[in-house]
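Researcher: Quick test of sequence recovery. Tokens follow.
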């Protein structure tokens, strides 16, 4: 399969997105709706992000209130755009500082950041910037006022630290630095804004501080669910100036341990101080290198795809939706205990289940339920009935005509009547006794159970559902199949005619003999001279004709019955075969095909989701 071939090599972002979209479509209605919606939102988000400037890298400073996001924002941009305050929370809406803003307008529109400021590559103010005319702040010169934040007691431009020596022309070109509100805010709007932007930006800088770096709020809600985003994340421990060097060292070590536990081993961790400028050059060059290689946007999308695929795999394996589509982090809503990347997500294996082996038992059970044994028995009886009517002793034949044909009694009439291709009516086979219906249900349940053995719970449920999906049509379908099946050849056997004629001939001989004898008896009674009586050996002919006729008639009738019994058995076997084929067809169409469709859907899902996860299982 196309997707499988691709697995052998590293899968491109395009391929992974394609896999995710297909997996989401296949999971629709089968798996947790949030996981499916999350995957779809990643696909659509990726489509939009790829159409926007890939020369720009949106980097967000995120963290708890008071951690120093705005201070770092000002420092990195060499401005006093952001309000730094002591009243918490200070920042209420995100704003952007742009280095080489040309072409970034649509990206900022998509990020929905109206407050944008162009910054000179060397970190100095370059004045107002109004991309798309959307409420851009007007600012001029270092320390100029900007934005709409309420001014804090410390005013603006609190920190003017000459720390970014390596931040030269071109290094930061394309950087879009975002100062976010606090994620742990008492203002729910702040949290929503953070969640929205954490989901969209290309690179995340988590600004932690010595007091709150171990807070569950940031680790459980954001960092763990974003474990797949190692390559597009930087963690900063700010305010290290508040600690002694030894304490800062210990703090960083502890934070590294926590990050490892979050599944974020290898994520860059930098200790900085917005007050002293310590660590700023390192952070600056880290950001500059990420901005320069212009790959963060793709790495971000790849991580999103992986996380959404993990969520689908979790949902598929019946582990429940630990991730949902309504929060930050690749459509993965970070919730209590949600771990999307650090957990080993169960690998998915395509099942090798076939429905071929299920056809036999299911057909048997449905045949029984459809009254096939009754029909088969009627076919044999009808054959014998007609045979006797055609070959029996004339008197027996005559009596037979008053007995109904067993097939007609079931409204199955003669085969010829049905081969005309006209509409097929209902039969009178007693198909729906409670027992038969429950046998039918049991048969379907067993087939579904066998087909779904070994499947994860949600897919097993989908298979069971598929097996029952045409339950309403089954009874009618079976009855119609029985009614439409040709139950044997239309032509009457040749020997019936021969035997029938022979019966008439011996009957005539017997009659002739009887009349002859009666004539002789009458002449004897009237004392008339006996006429010449021809004999065959010792036996007079009339006696021979009478007794021979009777005996021969009986013999022909007996032989015919034996032949009819054998013929009936043969026809019954033929009818059973034909009926079984028809019932098998119904079983396939109404039960096994839907089941096979669901199994194939699961197989395609596992292939697609594996491609989306890049076949690396994490
Ligand atoms: N000592 C010290 N104080 C800092 C440092 N960084 C920021 N601060 C102070 O911490 C307080 C909060 O700083 P902000 O930059 O407003 O923090 P924030 O993360 O933007 O806060 P919100 O906007 O409320 O989310 C201010 O009083 C800053 O002066 C630092 O590195 N060292
Ligand atoms: Mg702030």
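Model:
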């Amino acid at each position: 399969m196309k997707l499988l071939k691709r697995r052998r090599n590293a899968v491109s972002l395009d391929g992974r997105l394609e896999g995710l979209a297909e997996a989401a479509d296949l999971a629709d209605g089968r798996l947790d709706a949030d996981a499916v919606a999350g995957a779809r939102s990643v696909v659509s988000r990726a489509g939009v992000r790829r159409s926007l400037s890939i020369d720009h890298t949106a980097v967000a400073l995120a963290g708890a209130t008071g951690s120093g996001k705005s201070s770092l924002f000002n420092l990195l941009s060499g401005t006093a755009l952001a309000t730094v305050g002591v009243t918490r929370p200070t920042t209420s809406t995100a704003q952007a500082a742009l280095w080489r803003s040309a072409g970034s307008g649509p990206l900022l529109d998509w990020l929905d950041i109206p407050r944008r400021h162009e910054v000179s590559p060397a970190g100095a103010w370059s004045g107002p910037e109004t991309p798309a005319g959307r409420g851009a702040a007007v600012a001029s010169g270092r320390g100029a006022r900007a934005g709409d934040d309420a001014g804090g007691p410390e005013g603006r431009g609190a920190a003017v630290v000459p720390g970014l020596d390596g931040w030269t022309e071109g290094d930061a070109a394309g950087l879009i630095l975002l100062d976010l509100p606090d994620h742990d805010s008492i203002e729910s709007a702040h949290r929503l804004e953070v969640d929205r932007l954490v989901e969209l930006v290309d690179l995340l800088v988590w600004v932690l501080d010595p007091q709150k770096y171990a807070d569950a709020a940031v680790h459980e809600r954001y960092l763990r669910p974003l474990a797949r985003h190692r390559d597009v994340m930087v963690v900063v421990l700010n305010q290290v100036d508040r600690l002694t060097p030894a304490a800062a060292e210990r703090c960083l070590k502890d934070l590294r341990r926590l990050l490892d536990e979050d599944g974020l081993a290898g994520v860059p961790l930098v200790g900085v101080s917005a007050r002293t400028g310590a660590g700023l050059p390192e952070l600056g060059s880290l950001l500059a290198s990420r901005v320069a290689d212009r790959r963060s946007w793709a790495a971000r999308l790849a991580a999103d795809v992986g996380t959404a695929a993990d969520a689908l795999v979790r949902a598929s394996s019946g582990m429940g939706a630990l991730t949902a589509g309504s929060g930050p982090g690749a459509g993965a809503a970070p919730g209590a205990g949600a771990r999307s990347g650090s957990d080993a997500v169960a690998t998915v294996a395509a099942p090798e289940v076939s429905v071929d082996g299920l056809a036999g038992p299911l057909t048997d059970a449905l045949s029984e339920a459809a009254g096939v044994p009754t029909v088969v028995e009627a076919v044999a009886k009808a054959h014998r009935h007609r045979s006797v009517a055609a070959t029996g002793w004339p008197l027996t034949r005559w009596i037979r005509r008053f007995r109904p044909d067993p097939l007609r009694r079931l409204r199955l009439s003669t085969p010829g009547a049905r081969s005309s291709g006209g509409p097929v009516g209902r039969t009178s086979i007693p198909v729906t006794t409670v027992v038969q219906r429950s046998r039918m249900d049991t048969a379907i349940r067993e087939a579904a159970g066998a087909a779904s053995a070994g499947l994860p719970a949600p897919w097993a449920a989908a298979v069971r559902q598929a097996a029952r999906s045409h339950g309403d049509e089954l009874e009618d379908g079976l009855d119609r199949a029985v009614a439409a099946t040709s139950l044997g050849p239309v032509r009457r056997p040749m020997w019936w005619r021969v035997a029938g004629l022979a019966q008439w001939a011996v009957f005539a001989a017997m009659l002739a003999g009887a009349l002859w004898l009666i004539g002789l008896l009458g002449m004897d009674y009237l004392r008339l001279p006996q006429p010449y009586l021809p004999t065959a050996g010792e036996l007079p002919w009339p006696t021979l004709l009478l007794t021979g006729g009777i005996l021969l008639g009986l013999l022909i009738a007996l032989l015919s019955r034996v032949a009819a019994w054998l013929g009936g058995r043969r026809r019954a076997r033929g009818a059973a075969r034909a009926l079984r084929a028809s019932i098998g067809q119904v079983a396939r169409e109404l039960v096994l095909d839907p089941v096979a469709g669901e199994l194939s859907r699961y197989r395609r899902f596992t292939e697609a989701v594996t491609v989306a996860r890049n076949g690396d299982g994490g």
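The beta strands are 57-63, 95-99, 116-119, 175-179, 203-208, 233-237, 269-271, 535-536, 539-540.
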